[in-house]
Design brief:
398 residues, alpha/beta, Rossmann fold, 2 domains, six-stranded parallel sheet
């Protein structure tokens, strides 16, 4: 993407101190990293800089310490995970700014990698205090942001510092920005978006933004029930935000104006209780009984949605179609994800997905690796889908 400087533009880094903002906010079980996905995402950037002789200084947050030092949220706890993925020892510097940080950096040699302490131990981080950003910049020569997942926050280590040192996008950030540009920035049309999840209220801004950008908007999950109710369908005991029917109708109107087709399920899987493998019925949406709840999209609707995807060139996916964590209500999500994956493999569809539930659903379907790009960012991916500016990205623009 030409709007950002990348590692290709960085020049000779031998002996240069490169501050790299990464995402080390990883889950832990019994004192060990239980999922190293975010660490692995940063490795191409870390290795490339280290191999070129840079002194690589990793900036990251861990948990929500709210500007105070807390030993239970020290980045020293994730060092084992970082070293395991990198394959060699990494130094830990127990400060992120100030004389302690400078002293730690001073003993490092070209090619060395170090992790600085949790940036959120300092109140200046989340406040984006200019003095804190200045202090960070003092210990580095160059800045690389490789943490898209933190890019929606205007913090000292994501936004402030980018104005004080030559700033570049790391490899993971570059891949993310290129994928997002292909999905909604300058996509090949027709474009489809799948938006699922429990509540319309959490995705109103996403839906409003998407109807002006995509050709087909596929609504699933509990939020589809609110749109069905807006169309006069009795959804029984289903999760439904009846107070948002007017909002749903406004989104229908905006879609009509923009020439976007909204797809709602016309057959659904219902049950009287939300539990694993209860008795279920597959019915037309107009046949939902008063004591039943809609828990998944039906097979006929999934087949029709698959036909929609076959005629599209680009797909953006956020949120499952049904209550996928509870069988058999994963069937629609798995089936449509497999269709999208097959179309991607054959080269007819660019597929970009993101958000925690979405990643889990695609992994459950066994197709995450077949999508063009799967973003592990939660909030940042959602804010991008809402069309909101991302301060950590904007600070990198040329």
């Amino acid at each position: 993407m030409t709007a950002f400087k990348t590692l290709d533009d960085i020049g000779d880094v031998t002996g240069k101190r490169v501050l790299v903002r990464v995402d080390l906010n990883v889950p832990m079980i019994d004192g060990a990293v239980s999922d190293a996905t975010r660490i692995q995402a940063a490795m191409p950037t870390i290795r490339e800089l280290s191999d070129k002789g840079a002194i690589v200084l990793l900036l990251a947050h861990f948990g929500r310490p709210k500007g105070a030092k807390n030993p239970t949220q020290s980045l020293s706890l994730v060092m084992g995970g970082v070293e395991d993925v990198l394959g060699h020892s990494v130094m830990f510097i127990p400060e992120a700014v100030g004389e302690g940080a400078k002293a730690g950096v001073a003993v490092l040699a070209a090619g060395d990698v170090a992790v600085l302490e949790n940036t959120r131990f300092y109140p200046g981080e989340e406040a984006n205090d200019p003095a804190f950003a200045d202090a960070l910049a003092e210990i580095g020569d160059l800045y690389v942001n490789d943490a898209f997942s933190a890019a929606h926050r205007a913090h000292g280590s994501t936004e402030g510092i980018a104005h004080r040192l030559p700033a570049y996008a790391g490899r993971a950030m570059e891949a993310e920005l290129n994928a997002l540009d292909a999905a909604l920035g300058n996509p090949a049309h027709p474009v489809a978006a799948v938006v699922g999840g429990a509540k319309v209220s959490s995705k109103i801004d996403v839906l409003r933004n998407l109807v002006g950008k995509v050709d087909h908007l596929i609504i699933g999950g509990g939020m589809a029930n609110t749109f069905l109710a807006a169309r006069g369908v009795d959804v029984g005991k289903s999760l439904c935000e009846h107070d948002l029917v007017d909002t749903a109708n406004a989104i229908f109107d905006a879609a009509d104006t923009a020439g976007c087709t909204i797809h709602l399920p016309y057959d659904v899987v219902v049950a009287r209780e939300f539990a694993p493998n209860p008795p279920t019925r597959t019915v037309n949406v107009h046949e939902v009984a008063a004591d039943e709840m809609i828990l998944d999209v039906g097979p006929a609707a999934v087949e029709a949605l698959a036909d929609v995807l076959k005629n599209c060139r680009t797909l953006v996916w956020n949120g499952p179609l049904g209550a996928f964590e509870t069988p058999p209500f994963d069937a629609a999500t798995v089936a449509l994800a497999k269709t999208a994956a097959a179309l991607t493999r054959e080269g007819s569809l660019v597929s970009v997905a993101g958000g925690g539930d979405t990643v889990a659903a695609l992994n459950h379907a066994g197709v995450a690796a077949d999508f063009t790009f799967v973003s592990t960012a939660g909030g940042a991916f959602l804010e991008w889908m809402e069309g909101k500016p991302l301060p950590g990205v904007d600070a990198l623009r040329l």
